């Protein structure tokens, strides 16, 4: 007997029928002899509907009240899921984030979990009940106000709760079969990854892979918690995110490949600061201005200074959503820093190759550049970590770049068979 | 400066536009210099929609989970109302029943308030904020589970909170202008009552008047709290429920009439137990059987025994919704008690005349019977209290009975002008 934490997203509980299907799945797990704690998101479009309602009464709703409003979404889904489980003859009890002991800081809309004190969940499990917990929400340590965790918050709730309960595994149910070597909508021959290390998964999430949120992976890594990402529409094995070797269903240890996958990201823009005086401290001034606007930069390139002019250009990428405020902040600082002009470019794409094996295989970057050159794809910026290699290309060549790299590193499924993306076409 | 508790029902906050209208009203009250605490119900049909959803996943949802689900309704309305107030430039903070300190027993679906500890509400008011509190809900003292108060629960929340905060007045906003001498849909010449004592209001509520719930009036009476029932669609004075004399807008003390109003009730049925042995203890056996089924009886009549047979008939009224279970319980007990048969009659109506002046005017019942006799309306059962006189008639003569009594006691509006029922025809 083990303790399993399962997380079901909004698309898995979109309507009453889906809720009943998920309830059967949970009851099956319970009947296999496991203790089960379930984290659930709001049903389908509930959150969007609530945001629409808020916008009808207020142009800029106070963040505290928006959190109060949005948390009604999981309250509905968790109670309905508990009812559906009860209708199958198992005892289930639902708990809000606050009742489950999800303690956060006070930053409404993107609160961080400070502590998890799941006394009531433990008690419910000890009584043999299935515990259903609202994802995405917590309670502020200082003000006792209700908070939400922001994007990917339900995954983070599940992993944090699993860690606090010392669960054996955290299963993240989604509408795809797991993590793929690339987005199958771009690369039809992409393969499902059987196992990936948390370090690689972190780089994948940071590089634009959408299945797991960065913060959730960080949490799992910190607590050394195995995460199993799988589809709620099938019973296939999904992807294990764990640093321990896992056994395949045939009992063999799954071998770790050099390259795990190719991620891509269309959400970034590039700002170029043109004609910056090539003096010590000027780059620092620019990035202080951007940092003061609370904008996270990604890649940075400083051009080699032209000896004759004494001026240089500095380019960096950032989320498109922060583009306007970064441009405003830099424009205000133009006179003080003394640069010539700004250029804004939102027609870029980023492709990243991720694999722990890169550490011991120095030829990876050369192989990647060669493949792109052969396909006539121009590289505009480069950044690397120990286990990741990221490039910026024109947005219209991004899909090509992903396919070329995927093929070059032998990631295409060997039998040429198309991998089904998702179980029901949702 | 005074402290005002206002309660708005679901029809007053049915959609975004209504919420904005109510927000303006609240802000107006605040700007007049009052501290304002608002209790709000779920928006429009939200509660019914949530019950529909529950029924889709479970034939008999667990009461704990149904309460968890339904409380999402006020969570939405209170957050949206707080946003609408903030959009008008006033600070507002919403609180769940639990956060507002509404402590109840553990009877899900019809919990009773045990205590109110509104520390967070007081703090919010002290900071100059408008406090918005979810009606209808609380938290169980023993299990810390979320509870709901059942029908009329938001009114009870408002009155209980007003008592705990030592508010100067509790304003109950509804879609009619206050309490009327009879239901204006039946008696077009019914007048709005300016003031009614809590004792009379208790009898009105118990006799079928729908505007205020019995439990809420009991609470107001216990804490000697003035309640002002008025329309959220107009700025007219409504009805004051208070034992203190109130002044009219012209400064004169409003005189207390002998009769306050005529209430009616179509929700009851009559059961007759036929051929009961006329021996001591037989009536007690019958009512023990009914009480064991947790059914509240209203009126009881025992016929005079026919000397020859040694048998008698016993009739009583009860809510129609309890009819089936009462019949089942009595049928099971037939052999033990030894009665002949049961008759069930749901074609009855009850009309009640209420007035504190009855105590000192002994002719009231004779006057009432004479008026009904003249109209050819048969009286089937009678019950009285110190300030109430109730009669059972055939259901199809109930409306006539209400009109005849209303006229006989001089309650028709003197100028013959039709009183508008409600402000917007809702």
TrEMBL record, chains A, B:
InterPro entries named among the record's database cross-references: AceGlu_kinase-like_sf (IPR036393), ACT-like_dom_sf (IPR045865), ACT_Aspartokinase (IPR054352), ACT_dom (IPR002912), AKii-LysC-BS (IPR041740), Asp/Glu/Uridylate_kinase (IPR001048), Asp_kin_monofn (IPR005260), Asp_kinase (IPR001341)
Binding-site residues for substrate, renumbered to this chain: 47, 74
Keywords of the record: Amino-acid biosynthesis, ATP-binding, Diaminopimelate biosynthesis, Kinase, Lysine biosynthesis, Nucleotide-binding, Transferase
Stored PROSITE patterns: ACT, ASPARTOKINASE
Root EC class: transferase
SUPFAM superfamilies: ACT-like, Carbamate kinase-like
NCBIfam families named in the record: asp_kin_monofn, asp_kinases, PRK06635.1-1, PRK06635.1-2, PRK06635.1-4
A GO cellular component annotation in the UniProt record: cytosol
Binding, ATP: 7-10, 174-175, 185, 210-211
Protein name: Aspartokinase
Role according to the record: Catalyzes the phosphorylation of the beta-carboxyl group of aspartic acid with ATP to yield 4-phospho-L-aspartate, which is involved in the branched biosynthetic pathway leading to the biosynthesis of amino acids lysine, threonine, isoleucine and methionine.
Pathway in which the depicted protein is active: Amino-acid biosynthesis; L-methionine biosynthesis via de novo pathway; L-homoserine from L-aspartate: step 1/3; Amino-acid biosynthesis; L-lysine biosynthesis via DAP pathway; (S)-tetrahydrodipicolinate from L-aspartate: step 1/4; Amino-acid biosynthesis; L-threonine biosynthesis; L-threonine from L-aspartate: step 1/5
GO biological process, one term: homoserine biosynthetic process
Enzyme Commission number, as recorded: 2.7.2.4
Catalytic activity: L-aspartate + ATP = 4-phospho-L-aspartate + ADP
């Amino acid at each position: 007997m083990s303790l399993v934490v399962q997380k079901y997203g909004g698309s898995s509980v979109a309507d009453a029928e889906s809720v009943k299907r998920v309830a059967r799945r949970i009851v099956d797990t319970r009947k296999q002899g496991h203790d089960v704690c379930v984290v659930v998101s709001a049903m389908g479009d509930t959150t969007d509907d609530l945001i629409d309602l808020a916008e009808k009464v207020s142009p800029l709703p106070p963040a505290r009240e928006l959190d109060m409003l949005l948390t009604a979404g999981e309250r509905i889904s968790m109670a309905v899921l508990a009812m559906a489980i009860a209708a199958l003859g198992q005892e289930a009890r639902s708990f809000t984030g606050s009742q489950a002991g999800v303690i956060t800081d006070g930053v409404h809309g993107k609160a961080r979990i400070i502590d998890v004190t799941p006394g009531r969940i433990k008690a419910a499990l000890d009584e043999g009940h299935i515990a259903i917990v609202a994802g995405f929400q917590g309670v502020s340590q200082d003000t006792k106000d209700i908070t939400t965790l922001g994007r990917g918050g339900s995954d983070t709730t599940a992993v944090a709760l699993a860690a606090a309960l010392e669960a054996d595994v955290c299963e993240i149910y989604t509408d795809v079969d797991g993590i793929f070597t690339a987005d199958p909508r771009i690369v039809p021959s992409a393969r499902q990854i059987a196992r990936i290390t948390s370090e690689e998964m972190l780089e994948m999430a940071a590089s634009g892979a959408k299945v797991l949120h960065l913060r959730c992976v960080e949490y799992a890594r910190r607590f050394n918690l195995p995460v199993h990402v799988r589809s709620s529409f099938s019973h296939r094995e999904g992807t294990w995110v764990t640093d321990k070797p896992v056994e395949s269903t045939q009992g063999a240890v799954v071998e770790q490949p050099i390259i795990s996958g190719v991620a891509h990201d269309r959400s970034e823009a590039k700002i170029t600061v043109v004609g910056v005086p090539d003096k010590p401290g000027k780059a620092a001034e620019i990035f202080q201005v951007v940092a003061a606007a609370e904008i996270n930069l990604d890649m940075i390139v400083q051009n080699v200074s032209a000896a004759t002019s004494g001026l240089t250009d500095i380019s960096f990428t950032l989320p498109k959503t922060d583009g306007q405020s970064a441009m405003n902040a830099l424009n205000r600082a133009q006179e003080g820093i003394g640069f010539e002009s700004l250029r804004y470019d939102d027609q870029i794409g980023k492709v990243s190759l991720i694999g722990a094996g890169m550490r011991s295989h120095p030829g990876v970057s050369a192989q990647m550049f060669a493949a792109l050159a052969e396909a006539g794809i121009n590289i505009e910026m480069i950044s690397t970590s120990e286990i990741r290699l990221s490039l910026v290309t024109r947005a219209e060549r991004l899909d090509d770049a992903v396919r070329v790299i995927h093929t070059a590193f032998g990631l295409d499924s060997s039998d040429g068979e198309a991998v089904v993306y998702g179980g029901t076409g949702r």
